[in-house]
């Protein structure tokens, strides 16, 4: 895959975070998802409607949620992002790894793994 295509995939995922998670704008974010979008997080329903429900839930439950992409990698048709997500201002938040499969420049599939950031750590390395 060309470097330009990999960069386009990275930019699509970054735009998706901005629209769908930070701005909670389903209309804009949905344009970045394929028609057959597959969701692997068991708490979110499949497809565009499942993502719409998720965005609406974020608006209600976590209106001040923020997400900061710390690292982003693209290889082949996958983009992997290491994200600091904070649902409630002032809280430590969670370390998140999101995996996206791209198809024709849009997000076709999503997996995630989340780990709450503890108050104390047994090392000084941090999670990011």
TrEMBL record:
<dbReference type="Pfam" id="PF12680">
    <property type="entry name" value="SnoaL_2"/>
</dbReference>
<protein>
    <submittedName>
        <fullName>Nuclear transport factor 2 family protein</fullName>
    </submittedName>
</protein>
<dbReference type="InterPro" id="IPR032710">
    <property type="entry name" value="NTF2-like_dom_sf"/>
</dbReference>
<dbReference type="InterPro" id="IPR009959">
    <property type="entry name" value="Cyclase_SnoaL-like"/>
</dbReference>
<dbReference type="InterPro" id="IPR037401">
    <property type="entry name" value="SnoaL-like"/>
</dbReference>
<feature type="domain" description="SnoaL-like">
    <location>
        <begin position="14"/>
        <end position="110"/>
    </location>
</feature>
């Amino acid at each position: 895959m060309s470097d330009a295509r990999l960069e386009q995939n990275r930019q699509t995922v970054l735009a998706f975070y901005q629209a769908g998670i930070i701005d909670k704008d389903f209309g804009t974010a949905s344009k970045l998802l394929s028609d057959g979008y597959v969701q692997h997080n068991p708490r979110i329903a499949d497809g565009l409607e499942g993502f719409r429900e998720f965005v609406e839930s974020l608006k209600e439950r976590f209106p001040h949620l923020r997400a900061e992409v710390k690292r982003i990698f693209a290889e082949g048709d996958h983009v992997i992002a290491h994200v600091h997500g904070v649902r409630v201002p002032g809280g430590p938040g969670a370390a998140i790894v999101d995996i996206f499969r791209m198809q024709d420049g849009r997000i076709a599939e999503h997996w995630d793994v989340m780990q709450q950031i503890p108050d104390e750590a047994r090392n000084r390395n941090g999670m990011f």
